[in-house]
Design a protein that fits this description.
- Helix content is about 10%, strand content about 35%.
- The protein has one helix and ten strands, in the order H-E-E-E-E-E-E-E-E-E-E.
- Strand 9 and strand 10 form a beta hairpin.
- It is globular, with a radius of gyration of 16 Å.
């Protein structure tokens, strides 16, 4: 019979281990990773990053998640709200020098300010022409 796993000890170990993985200079892997985090949307994970405050940000097909090793906050598109995520399928995340998180998703790109908790949607251009976004 398998030994019982203490959920708190497992989460503490995960929180201690993630910084070394997140900041390591390791090329992207095609290895399947399974995160069993309560509150995380049941959908594929496309990307993740750890911010300067220690939050783990996870981009999924069903929204952007912020995980603090205890709780999961899920940010999704709210139709008609220009300060919400432009689309729910998050494809990539990048953090800039100001601590803002740049989000690329189906529906457009935006910058999330963790201090105001608002998304600032960005208009994208290529060769001087606006790139059409999906609604």
């Amino acid at each position: 019979m398998a030994p019982e796993v203490n959920a708190f000890a497992l989460m503490a170990a995960l929180c201690a281990w993630l910084p070394s993985v997140t900041f390591a200079q390791i090329p992207p892997s095609t290895e399947l990773v399974h995160l069993d985090i309560k509150g995380l949307p049941v959908s594929p994970i496309h990307c993740q990053l750890k911010d300067h405050d220690g939050f783990l940000w996870i981009g999924t097909e069903n929204g952007l998640c912020r995980y603090d090793c205890v709780n999961v906050d899920v940010y999704r598109n709210i139709p008609g709200d220009s300060l919400s995520l432009p689309g729910n399928a998050v494809d990539d995340l990048v953090i800039d020098g100001k601590g803002q998180i740049w989000v690329a998703c189906f529906g457009g790109a935006c910058v999330f300010d963790p201090h105001t908790m608002k998304f600032d949607r960005k208009t994208l251009y290529a060769s001087g022409k606006q790139i059409p976004l999906y609604e």
